[in-house]
């Protein structure tokens, strides 16, 4: 079972998330927290695999709590939940070691998928969050980022670009493998090569780079 901590200052939101997650037969919500400080303390004292943190909470916000959990309970994988998808928050979450970032209006199945991905050691970025981030980047700085991203992606082979494009859509290794008719293990090998070539710490950073470059799956 994947043991989950849900942290949000709104009881109805916590109840809704609990209902969604416990509908999956491999996920158990073992703890809840009403603020960031409680989330950190619970992550330290409870056997938890994945923590879902609201980005806006009293006492400690989600990003600060994420950093504290990373320092004091590094075994816990943290997903950030928010109604906002600004790139700055996404990058801060990744910089603090977050396992992913998704919007509160994501589909229930996406929430379950994100928890499973985080528990498996994969990073997850909601496609909706990614699109929202990209849509807000119509600026000269965004153009410069796009040019730099395309330059970095030029080091990849055609097959690596195909795999990276699917990461940019938020697909897991298994889903990407099914799309490309490859085994999950083969996709994992490609992802490792991609991260090395792009000098990215995790797959979400690589996915953002793919989005900056305008990379889309073939036929997408």
Provide an overview of this structure.
The structure is a single chain. This protein is α/β, with parallel strands linked by helices. It has helices spanning about 10-20, 35-45, 60-70, 85-95, 110-120, 125-135, 140-155, 160-170, 175-180, 185-200, 205-210; strands at about 1-5, 25-35, 50-55, 75-80, 100-105, 125. Strands 2-1-3-4-5-6 form a six-stranded parallel beta sheet, sandwiched between helices. It starts with a strand and ends in an 8-residue tail after the last helix. The relative contact order is 0.11. The model has no long low-confidence stretch (mean pLDDT about 85).
SSE topology string: EHEHEHEHEHEHHHHHH
The pLDDT mean sits at 85
Physical arrangement of strands within the biggest beta sheet: 2-1-3-4-5-6
Rg result: 17 Å
InterPro entries: CheY-like_superfamily, NreC/VraR/RcsB-like_REC, Sig_transdc_resp-reg_C-effctor, Sig_transdc_resp-reg_receiver, Tscrpt_reg_LuxR_C, WalR-like
Protein name: Response regulator
Organism: Streptomyces cellulosae
Keywords: DNA-binding, Phosphoprotein, Transcription, Transcription regulation
Question: Which keywords apply here?
Answer:
single chain, 220 residues, 14% strand, Sig_transdc_resp-reg_receiver
What's the SSE blueprint?
Elements: E1 2-7, H1 11-22, E2 27-33, H2 36-45, E3 50-54, H3 62-72, E4 77-82, H4 87-95, E5 100-103, H5 108-119, E6 124-125, H6 127-135, H7 140-153, H8 158-168, H9 173-180, H10 184-198, H11 203-212
Helix pairs in contact: 2-3, 7-11, 8-9, 8-10, 8-11, 9-10
Keywords: DNA-binding, Phosphoprotein, Transcription, Transcription regulation
Domain HTH luxR-type: 149-214
Domain Response regulatory: 3-119
């Amino acid at each position: 079972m994947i043991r989950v901590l849900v942290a949000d200052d709104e009881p109805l939101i916590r109840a809704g998330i609990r209902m969604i997650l416990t509908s999956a037969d491999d996920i158990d919500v073992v703890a809840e927290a009403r603020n960031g400080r409680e989330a950190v303390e619970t992550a330290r004292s409870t056997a938890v695999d994945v923590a879902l943190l609201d980005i806006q909470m009293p006492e400690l916000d989600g990003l600060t709590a994420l950093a504290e959990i990373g320092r004091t309970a590094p075994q816990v994988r943290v997903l950030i939940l928010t109604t906002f998808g600004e790139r700055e928050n996404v990058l801060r979450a990744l910089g603090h070691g977050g396992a992913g970032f998704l919007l509160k209006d994501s589909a229930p199945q996406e929430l379950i998928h994100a928890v499973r991905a985080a528990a498996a050691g994969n990073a997850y970025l909601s496609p909706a969050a990614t699109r929202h981030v990209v849509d807000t980047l119509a600026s000269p700085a965004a153009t410069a980022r796009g040019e730099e991203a395309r330059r970095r992606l030029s080091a990849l082979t055609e097959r690596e670009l195909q795999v990276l494009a699917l990461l940019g859509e938020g697909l897991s290794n298994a889903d990407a493998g099914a799309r490309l008719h490859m085994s999950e293990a083969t996709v994992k090998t490609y992802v490792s090569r991609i991260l090395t070539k792009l000098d990215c710490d995790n797959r979400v950073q690589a996915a953002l780079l793919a989005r900056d470059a305008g990379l889309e799956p073939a036929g997408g």
